Amino acid sequence: MNTMRINCSHCGASRTVPSDQWADHANFITCENCGRKIKTVRCPGCGTAYSITFDFVKNTRYRVNCKKCLARFIITFPESCTVPPAPAADRPDEALSPSAPKPPAGPTAPKPRSPYRESIYTINGFLRAVGSSFTRKKILPASLAVAVVYALGSLIGALLSRLPLPAGADRLLTPFTLSKQMLMFFVIYLMGSALVAGITLDETRENRRPLGVYLRGVTAHVAPIAAGAAAVLLLIELAVLVFGSIPLVGTLLYALLFIPVYGLSLAVAAAAVVGFWFYAPIMARHRGGFRRSMIELYRFTVRHNFSLLFNIAILAAGALAATGFLYLLHSLGLAAALGLSRVFIGPDASGLFSSMNPGVSALRVIFSSVFMNSGSGQSVLQGISIFIIGLSLTLITVVLAGIFISIVATISTRAYDEMEEQVPRDEKSAVFLLGLLVMLLVLLFLARWVLPV
């Protein structure tokens, strides 16, 4: 006999019931711990089971939307579960005690509109979404993820470089080194995006939680994030490997083998693009492992199919425009800092800035130049200046990467949530927004070309 495990959402108690009991739509189960009633129902579209804990209901019929397949169905409650009307004897007799006349009610003040109620596919909604990404609650965990993953990756790379390798091994490890760098990029991006996506979803539902909750919750996402990034890289390398293995033994055979390989490469590219924008929001919303997240990503792609092209175009243009504007400001600030640094470092400041690589390795080189190369003719003031500039550039690089992740994760999560909740949007406003973002990108490119930065 099939059974089902039912959990009471009021007290947390669980029990196992036979299928003939929970399959009866006119029946309900009583919690043995708190006495609450539990109604069970299955979605007729995908078969997902739902349980509802209640005391009484106002109506006997309610419409429910399935969270997985978005199918709408009706659940029914027995008449015995409805709230009984109050008896007439228990109601206050208003005729015996006439109340004083009430003053006329004035106009009610309009309720403040939440900034997250407006569609992201409008100019105002998009600007609000981008503005909500510039918060300490989002930039701090994203920057922390960048710093931690980059430091661990650099440490692992330094340890691997010290291992004794046979002759000719460098040529064999070149693809692995490239894959390691790509894997590090994906892990950094997905780690920060998962944190920001969870914060954005809670903001959309006006559910504010402390930052420590998201930092503790990211430990549960490490395995699916690493698995997702590794799966994308393996699929890309598999497509490249299969492309290179096509035997050139004739035009007809080459064409027959090329078509399925091209289809595989196209599917891998589509999965990588959709996953880049929507894997982190899916993982934050469903809070599952790698397998469930990939299944939800596949269902999401099939459900929205070609409409994703237009949505991703808007998100990509918006993210590039926002980060391009920040990069332009950063370039102008760096040019101004270069002019001021000539006072302390001298005429070699330009060469210093052009050769400096912000990061953990740069800090090690700068540290050694200050405290170990005192006999190289370099003054202590110049060494300290180099150290401060290198540290500042490293922090700026980490924060800029965190801001980029915060912007991308915020707008992609808002778009994903609206698509899943089927929020109506004005197509004319969306097309106008895309055209405006493209024009802004052109202006930023021209400004970067003209300005001496």
Report on this model:
It contains 13 helices and 7 strands. It starts with a strand and ends with a helix. The protein has 453 residues and is mainly α. It folds into 2 domains: 3-81, no CATH class; 117-164 and 179-243 and 270-453, no CATH class. The strands form 3 sheets. It has a 3-stranded antiparallel sheet with strand order 3-4-5, with no helix packed on it. A two-stranded antiparallel ribbon has the order 1-2.
User: What radius of gyration results from the CA coordinates?
Assistant: 30 Å
State the major sheet: 3 strands, antiparallel
Total domain units: 2
Mean pLDDT: 70
Shape: globular
SS element count, helices: 13
Strand order of the largest sheet: 3-4-5
Short description:
The protein is built from 13 helices and seven strands. It is mainly α and about 450 residues long.
Ordered list of secondary-structure elements with their pairings:
Layout: E1 3-7, E2 14-18, H1 19-22, E3 29-30, E4 37-42, E5 49-54, E6 61-65, E7 72-76, H2 123-132, H3 136-161, H4 169-204, H5 211-217, H6 222-244, H7 251-286, H8 290-304, H9 307-345, H10 349-355, H11 360-371, H12 380-420, H13 427-450
Keywords:
single chain; 453 residues; mainly alpha; 3-stranded antiparallel beta sheet; two-stranded antiparallel sheet; 7 strands; globular
